[in-house]
Design brief:
Distance between the termini: 31 Å
Order of helices and strands: EEEEEEEEEEEHEHH
Structural class: alpha+beta
Number of helices: 3
Helix content: 10-25%
Strand order of the largest sheet: 2-3-4
Number of strands: 12
């Protein structure tokens, strides 16, 4: 009887589709802990979320990294009308206004900038894959041919397992499909020669 080829169709999911819960190694007891996305207590719109750390083994509460703010944007000089882009240093407080100097004529003007939040980078350089908020190493990760194969949680593992195990992989024609999780997977994950080894890792992670 002919074996039916497993089929996977890209569901146009992004990495952010799997970050409601991220499993990490607890910095205190090194057990499996979680970083959960929860509603912000002071949010009035009901859409704002914050990341909260939970370890059910030692109940430690690690301090999140310091958040800083960078002003950036594009302006047209009010004096010479030439366009230019700008980016500030990191501020401790969110800048409501930011003064720039035109690189063409040195004219200075002040206005409301776009603002990006950044966190202080860790000084650790251990080669581990880390989540972006508390900068803790992911629980599901393994070195594979000088690369790091990793996942956030069981749902992420299931999605990767379906993709890697499929003999027929179909792309999604929806908008932004080139930015989907599947489209951005590294070559070693997509390579057919690595299929069995990667599936074995995923199976072990699932327990």
């Amino acid at each position: 009887m002919e074996k039916i080829m497993e089929r996977f169709q890209d569901e146009n999911k992004f990495l952010g589709s799997f970050n409601d819960e991220i499993f990490v190694k607890c910095p205190n007891c090194e057990s499996k802990a979680s970083i959960l996305k929860k509603p912000a207590e002071d949010c009035k719109c009901g859409k704002c979320k914050v990341m909260s750390f939970e370890c059910k083994h030692c109940f430690t509460k690690p301090k999140p990294p310091t958040v800083k703010y960078v002003a950036y944007g594009k302006r047209y000089c009010m004096n010479c009308r030439e366009p230019y882009e700008f980016k500030s240093q990191a501020f401790k407080k969110k800048p409501m206004l930011y003064k720039t100097k035109c690189p063409h004529c040195n004219f200075q003007e002040e206005g409301k900038p776009k603002v990006a939040e950044i966190t202080e980078e860790s000084k650790l350089n251990d080669g581990l894959m880390r989540e972006w908020w508390y900068n803790l190493p992911l629980w599901f990760q393994k070195e594979f041919d000088n690369e790091i194969f990793w996942a956030y949680n069981p749902d992420h593992i299931d999605y990767l397992e379906r993709y890697i195990g499929a003999g027929l992989r179909e792309r999604n024609s929806k908008a932004n499909y080139t930015s989907s999780l599947v489209a951005r997977l590294p070559k070693f994950v997509k390579a057919a020669k690595n299929r069995e080894k990667l599936l074995k890792i995923l199976k072990k992670w699932k327990g």
